[in-house]
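User:
Note these tokens:
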Amino acid sequence: MDKISDIREVAPDWYEARKTELAGEGYPSLANIPQNTTYRRQQAAMVLSREEQNALLTAFEEDPRSAPADQTPEEILAWSRQLRARVDQQLTQASFLSDADIARLKSLFDRPRARR
């Protein structure tokens, strides 16, 4: 028991915090989460008049980012094929070993081993 108390006395500073964490202590309780009592008032404040709704809808429709796509799916597919062809032209040919090269390398290391 003396050894255990000696070890506790020379334990580093972080030991107590880590021990509490491993024991599952020190965490807040879910029962102590504060209630948002202003939620209903905030929700009621979000209700817009007909004029405000129309103004928001007009602003949305006039924004260039909300414009529908001006290309058909076929046009988009054709564009992607053209782009893919340009990328494929820039790719260099892979210089992998041929079957003959692999066989030659294997033959270099294929040596009889001494057996008893």
